[in-house]
Amino acid sequence: MIDTAFLEFRYKLRKIVARAGEELFPFITYFINWTHLQATMNSDNPPAPPDTLANYRELAVSDLEKSILEEHERSKLLDEKTFKMTLSLALGLTILGSVTAVLLRNVGESTIATLMRFGLALSIFYIFVGGSIALSSLRTLPTFGYGTGFKIDVKRANAPVEVYIDALLRQEKANQIRQVRNEAAFQALRNGFVLFGIVLILYFLVLAGIIHAGLPIAL
Hints:
elongated, 79% helix, mainly alpha, disordered C terminus
């Protein structure tokens, strides 16, 4: 019989590994989450399990309308946050472009120089990926629960409350897509800037003579 403590340890270890994977490779996690949420949002079936639908049906139409408006407002805030991240990206790339040229020219050829070049390449990769994810916010996501078509659906429906619930659930999924997009963009940009910071520290250590840049490249 497997010990309970071992099962608990294995579960915690899996969570730690999964979290580390998400932090190190946010673009993979983002793609998985984005694919799932997009499929759920655009599905012909209700975009929520039966117990969630039952809970939503307890709400009055006025409460559902209010929740839809709140989700619309939240979508604007999430898009604004993404826009600010794109500005950070532009500034980061400008700094990287200027400093990288200096670093690559002055360090020479050595083990530490090779590590620094690799770190810079990885840093630029992360920032590029983070920027690409952030810039995807320019592609408009659908908005549910507003407009003439929605009003007609409510008017024609035998149970108008179901139309409101469906719109609210789909709008929530759209906002979840925005949320995972922002999180992935932030994680990628953060990783890029952290790597760049490490390379910059190594560069100053080389300049100070604390690290020898003249060592031959180890095979």
